[in-house]
Design brief:
The protein has eleven helices and 15 strands. By secondary structure, the protein is α/β, with parallel strands linked by helices. The protein has three domains: 98 residues, Nucleic acid-binding proteins (OB fold (Dihydrolipoamide Acetyltransferase, E2P)), CATH 2.40.50.140; 158 residues, 3-Layer(aba) Sandwich (Rossmann fold), CATH 3.40.50.300; 81 residues, Ribonucleotide Reductase Protein R1, domain 1 (Orthogonal Bundle), CATH 1.10.40.
C-alpha cells in the first residue's frame, strides 16, 4: 500500500491510503499471479509509459521501472497495463518482466505498413468519446471513434461537452444518438456543471477519454478529478481546433472510485482489425443485413439487398451507409498490410484491369 493525497482534499489534510484495488486489481488477477509471486515478482499498473521506462504503481509504492528492449508485445507496456515487476536492489533498478494479459485494449492502426496496431490504452472499462458542441458535429468522426471503442471490448459512452456554447444541445444529442445505436449520449458542460453528476454515475472502472484536441477532454477530466491536474488550452475560433495540451497518456485515481486515463488529442484514428466494432457501431445495418438475399451481400448493387431497400424507404440514410462502406474499406486495407492472402485478393482486380488494358493496346485494331 502507499499514500497519495486525494484529489478533493487540500495537501494539509490527512492522506488516503491507496491500494492496487483502487487501480483495478482484483481477486481474479491475484489468483493468476500466484506463480509470479513465488518467483519474487510483484504486480503493478503502468500509469505512464515512455520509451524504455515506465512509471508503475505497485504494492510498495510508485516505482520507476526499466523495460527490457526487444521483448515484443510481451514487454511493450502501455498506460493501463498490469505488469509483473522485479523489485530493484542496491545493485540494479526495478524491471518490468512481463505485461499481463489485457482484458481490453483500445487499438488504432498506424502509418507503418508492417504495423500490428498501436495500443492507446489497456484494461479500460469505459471509453468516453468526447464530442464538442461548440462547433459543427462530425458524424463520420463519431462513428469512427465508436467503432474503435466497441472493438476495444469496453463500454462506449458519448459525452457531449461545452453544452453552454450550443444553441440547442438537446437537438444535437438526438442527432448524435441517431449515429450511435446502443450507446448512452450525455450532455455536459464543465463551465456550468451541467450533466457532471450523471456522468460521474455512468463512468465506472478505468475510464479513458478519447477525442480530438479541443473537445474538452482535459477540462472535463479536471472536473471529474476535483482539481486542475490536467493542462488545458484555448481553441481556435476559425476551425474549432485546439492544441495538444496533454502530451502523454496518464492514469489518475478518481476521488469517488475508479481511475481516469487522459490521452492526447487524436488527429487521426485508423481502424485496426475492427470488424466487430463496425458491426456494433452500425448495428442497424448489421440487423438489416440479416434480410438480404445473399449472405455475402456487400450492400452495393446486389438484388434483394435489405439494406439498400431501407435506404430507398427512408429508414436508413445514404450518408450512414456510405460511412459504413468507407470504414469497412479502410479496415480491410489495414488488415491487408499483414495478411498476404487478403492483400493479393485486393490487388487482383487492379492486375486484371492492367492486363486488359495491355491486351487492348496490343490488339491490331487498337488506335491511340
Amino acid at each position: 500500500m502507499f499514500h497519495q493525497p486525494t484529489s478533493h482534499q487540500p495537501s494539509s489534510s490527512p492522506t488516503r491510503v491507496l491500494t492496487l484495488a483502487d487501480y483495478g486489481w482484483d481477486s481474479e488477477r491475484e489468483r493468476s499471479f500466484t506463480l509470479s509471486r513465488a518467483a519474487g515478482l510483484v504486480p503493478g499498473r503502468v500509469v505512464r509509459a515512455e520509451r524504455g521506462l515506465c512509471d508503475v504503481v505497485a504494492e510498495t509504492g510508485p516505482v520507476r521501472a526499466a523495460v527490457v528492449p526487444g521483448g515484443g508485445d510481451r514487454l511493450t507496456p502501455c498506460t493501463g497495463d498490469w505488469v509483473a515487476v522485479r523489485p530493484g536492489t542496491e545493485a540494479s533498478s526495478a524491471t518490468v518482466v512481463e505485461v499481463l494479459e489485457r482484458r481490453t485494449a483500445v487499438v488504432r492502426s498506424t502509418a507503418s505498413r508492417d504495423s500490428q496496431g498501436q495500443v492507446l490504452a489497456a484494461n479500460v472499462d469505459t471509453v468516453a468519446v468526447t464530442v464538442s458542441l461548440a462547433g459543427p458535429l462530425r458524424h463520420g468522426r463519431i462513428e469512427r471513434m465508436l467503432a474503435l471503442a466497441w472493438k476495444s471490448g469496453a463500454m462506449p459512452v458519448v459525452v457531449l461537452t461545452k453544452a453552454d456554447r450550443s444553441a440547442d444541445a438537446a437537438s444535437a444529442a438526438a442527432e448524435v444518438a441517431a449515429v450511435a445505436p446502443g450507446v448512452e449520449v450525455l450532455i455536459t458542460s464543465a463551465a456550468t456543471g451541467e450533466g457532471l453528476d450523471v456522468l460521474d454515475a455512468v463512468l465506472s472502472g478505468t475510464v479513458v477519454l478519447l477525442g480530438p484536441s479541443g473537445a474538452g477532454k482535459s477540462t472535463l477530466g479536471n472536473r471529474l478529478l476535483g482539481e486542475d491536474r490536467l493542462a488545458t488550452g484555448a481553441v481556435r475560433d476559425g476551425d474549432g481546433k485546439g492544441r495538444h495540451t496533454t502530451a502523454w497518456r496518464e492514469l489518475l485515481p478518481l476521488p469517488h472510485g475508479g481511475v481516469l486515463l487522459d490521452t492526447p488529442g487524436l488527429r487521426g484514428v485508423g481502424l485496426h482489425d475492427a470488424d466487430e466494432g463496425l458491426d456494433q457501431a452500425f448495428a442497424e445495418i448489421t440487423e438489416l443485413a440479416q434480410g438480404c438475399r445473399f449472405a455475402d451481400c456487400a450492400h452495393a448493387t446486389e438484388p434483394g439487398c435489405a439494406v439498400l431497400a431501407a435506404v430507398e424507404d427512408g429508414l436508413l440514410t445514404r450518408r450512414r451507409l456510405d460511412s459504413y462502406h468507407r470504414l469497412q474499406r479502410e479496415n480491410t486495407h489495414a488488415a491487408s498490410r499483414t495478411d498476404a492472402r487478403l492483400r493479393a485478393e485486393l490487388e487482383r482486380p487492379k492486375k486484371q484491369g492492367a492486363r486488359l488494358r495491355r491486351a487492348i493496346k496490343q490488339s491490331p485494331n487498337f488506335k491511340a
